Amino acid sequence: MMSKLRLLFDRFTLILIAVVTAATVLPAHGQGAVFFERLTAAAIALLFFLHGAKLSREAIIAGATHWRLHGVIFIWTFVIFPILGWVLRPVLLPLLGEPLYVGIVYLTVLPGTVQSAIAFTSIARGNVPAAVCAASASSIVGIVITPLLLQLFLGADTSALGGSSLLQAIGRISVQIFLPFVAGHLMRPVIGRWMDGHRKLVTSVDQSSILLVVYTAFSESVIGGLWQTVDSISLAWLVVACCGLLALVLVLNTWSARRMGFNRADEITIVFCGSKKSMATGVPMAGVLFSAGAIGPVLLPLMIFHQIQLMVCAVLAQHYLRAGQQQDSSGRRAAA
Fold it and tell me: What pTM was computed for the model?
């Protein structure tokens, strides 16, 4: 029982809840808010520098050759996912209200995760090189596609861009995320071996950056009246909506991979890379794309969906692993 609870509620989740509580009770303001904003910007730059340094060119070459698989993952991440959010608008908008529904739209247009998608693909014995390539490419492409899709699905309302034009928003995201990523990748020949021996460092910086951004963003939103805008009933419906959205994507994703004739390893990669949304990319992007007053409700769907996807995918990865082990065992017995 305790192991199952640890699977569902890991240490990072509990810390994340504590950070949101701290931002509610003791929000940063004045010079404290300025300090946290600068610290957060530095942490995000370091995070994507390390992500770039971690990605080997061998992994890129090994995974990039599987164009059909990458095309399917791209379509799920940046086409079908956003369309589902848009199609569900008549149901979700009355239940959640405008601020949280904008958060759902933002969630659906985000790139996929990198670390957890690769980790779950590895546990389930999927196509890991392809997962590395697909997940990393998703984050890079999302720098441009996410703001474009956000404006497309929000219609003519450009207030979501926090007063910036679309090109300005893309430029700011590129400076904050893409340039550090490229710089890190260019430095890989120098620091790559050290990075391979300190993989936990990326995870620590990843989680610390998210916590800093969440605290800073929620502090601004709490001061702006976040919890007067979002009530407990809306939060409950938001959890239901995130569960339903993830379930719908996983079912359709798995069905489509099998219908298209992908083998088991590629199916696993499509399921884990095409159904997950990145908090590591989504949280700092939100700080660029949304105004301070809107960012809290926008991040709530992402935070809730992120935790649900981790819990569900952890169970799903173990299911794939056991099914694969049973197939291997049956094959050996048949051969004997």
Answer: 0.78
